[in-house]
Write a structure and sequence with these properties.
Shape: elongated
Strand order of the largest sheet: 1-3-2
Oligomer: single chain
Largest sheet: 3 strands, mixed
Order of helices and strands: HEHEEEEHHH
Distance between the termini: 53 Å
Structural class: mainly alpha
Number of helices: 5
Strand content: 5-15%
Length: about 180
Amino acid sequence: MCSAPTLVTKAVRVAEVVDVRYARHCLTLNFLKGKSEFLIQFRGTGAPKARAFLMNELGGKIPFRRANGTDAIVLCTEVYKHVGTKTPVSGSMLPEIRTKVRETRGASAPFRAKLLRNKELTEQQRGVYASALLTTKLVSGAGTWPALGAGELKAFHGGMMSLYRPITGANTPGAIHQTD
């Protein structure tokens, strides 16, 4: 456990090291809001005090000196967005998984109504189309997710199955299931 000022000192050092490493490759990090930011997770008995110090007293801003000698500020955020994926300070991906399932369900409505209810398509063909169209939408950005816990995996799997069942006809009597 470290104090809030010690945490800020360590965060400054991280920002300096990252900035130097990028500068060595002639790259400049963008520290504007929504770009390169800190997502700091506070744990333990001193967490509320440390969070209050960082977010209230410092305004969620960590000043540091850039590799080129100029002053800069790294902003702290409660939710980090990368490649369309939002990671909250809690680290739980459940809100993101639920959002992706909801968005995929909405995006799939027109294609379900026109293409997948076509009686000329077999269940296997509907499954192939569903896999190609739904899965790509659902897992878009998932490469940026941390390892998922049991609850998150269950939510993801349940969400995916809730999208596939109506399309493949798995809810209908006599439907073929993966286990058959």
